[in-house]
User: Fold MI domain-containing protein from Hibiscus syriacus.
Amino acid sequence: MNGTGGFISDENREILQSASGSEGPLCSSSSKSPRSTQVHGKGSPISHDRQSRSPIDGRPKKGGCGGKGTWGGLMDTYSSYPLDSKDPNYDSSEEKVTIIVEEYFATDDVVSTTNELEELAMPSYNYYFVKKLVSMAMDRHDHEKEMAAVLLSALYADVIDAPQVYRGYSKLVESADDLIVDIPDTVDILALFIARAVVDDILPPAFLNKQRELLPNNSKGVEVLERAEKGYLAAPMHAEAIERRWRVGKKTVEDVKARINNLLIEYVASGDKKEAYRCIKDLKVPFFHHEIIKRALVMAMEKRKAEDRLLDLLKEAAEEGLINSSQITKGFDRMIDTVDDLSLDIPDAQKILKSLISKATSDGWLCASSLRSLSLEPRNKSLEDNFTKTFKLKCQTIIQEYFLTGDISEVFSCLEAENKTSSGELNSIFVKRLITLAMDRKNREKEMASVLLSSLFFPADDVVDGFVMLIESADDTVLDNPVVVEDLAMFLARAVVDEALAPQHLEEVGSQFSGIDSVGGKVFQMAKSLLKARLSGERILRCWGGGGGSTPGWAIDDVKLKIAKLLEEYESGGDIREAYRCIKELGMPFFHHEVVKKALVIVIEKKNDRLWGFLAHCFGSGLITMNQMTKGFSRVEECLDDLALDVPDARKQFLAYVEEAKAIGWLDSSFHYGNSTNGKENGACL
Assistant:
């Protein structure tokens, strides 16, 4: 078939095949009907398919089909001509494919699209449907890209078998040089479609390497595959990031709150539960249903006559499973937290709330034992509200200026002036505000926030409280930042790597949130997973493209080189204060085990105790912690086999230094030779 939708006769098939230099059949014949292809007239230019494609920014939703073009091998060569319905050999199935895709993008109806594709009854050409769907989505908005990705996932295996999906993506990669003519960002978009297919398990990871071997090194297809592999699939938490890349139409917190308020007002006026439930479902924010509980309770307290009607709505929503128990509990807890403020406008707010809790409990849709305690006496707050609000505003100014200047010392000065008593509560507020503002910005600011947090040396309890406050507000934040769980998990893991928090503090954060399905549980589990990964410190350090310290962006190899150089200079007679200053300026306390390792290796190799004294100075001043000492000794133990090749008594020396380190408190008494696994894979003693 050519670009016009016609067919060539079997007689001419071999002529075309030999002219194009291809091997094997140009396209397989359908079992339903014979297929042939019409030869272009003399002088007809032969070009690849250069029709416009939709941008690939979405998740696979509905089934897409090929558009105007051709089936099989010839489709990829002769597709620049439009379909001609007057052509005697015209086949309308190709136009049907385009219509199916267009209708799908208009209706978002997966079931209807699936039925229409099956009616074409051409399973051996489904690869073209894949190619056409993706290429059309590439030239459209993120919404259509997401729809295309969702559709392919829905059709996979049941309607389109795996080999056809594989071949469709193969054809797309091969045609990247042509697609880029009409879609300048073809490399990035197609790479993201491929990464999404891998994440959705409709394309095997091996596709990238196998396809790369079939393409010329200088082709755009190779660039696409490399971008998919290195730019998307190799990134931290890539699956979540890729799946959310094309999700559009995000609601803001204010929008959702306004809609909730409106639906409750309308329900109080009409009493129509069915309509109220429909509106709740249409919100599509089950994680934010606690706001419905809170606003309904406030309305019941303000409009006493509407109390029974509102409680009845909440009761039935709970019984039907529309609002789950955790959201109900959270809604009541939020009311308990704000009841003091409500008392300014509703004098009996606390007594009314207690009555509402009692009624909900007796009706069986609230578990009162899971709620926070509600005291009838106003709670004494540790800080005046006005002062706290003022501090929050000043925090925002301090942080915004820091993002512009990168001046950590200025932040220190400002905090000392604003928080003269070093209040733990204010420290926690600053931590929360710092990370909240960073999450709304780019990786540069996220890296700067982590660097600042590790430089402030806040008490760990204050940092823990800051993270707990962040996670508690995550349900609201997720409306504006869909990847808030991933961001918080990375910030939390980075705080542990930077030693702003110890591992036990991570457990403390996790203990504040019950259930692995809660936002806090998800953040905690994801942070633990990040920290358990091999070489987690280096990976987490690079998560936002930074390297800590006042010079974000240092690579690990650069840091290792700096450490080796400063130790070499000190060992040859340098000043201890200068070496100490250089280590401190690296701004990477989580990587001080490299200092310990390199210093100890030099001590063993050269039998020179000058660097041993330097480690004693660093430990005594608190620059190098026991945790970093332990990691450093463990790394030396891992490379003793290699070290012994040059220093035969390396093991004997190492054991002696271990015992001395235990005696002077560098290492815990539980540390003993043999605890570490063989670490040759970590790069020996380089």
Q: What stands out?
A: The CA atoms of residues 118 and 125 lie 12 Å apart. The chain has four domains: 92-244, 253-370, 383-542, 556-664. The chain has a mean pLDDT of 77.
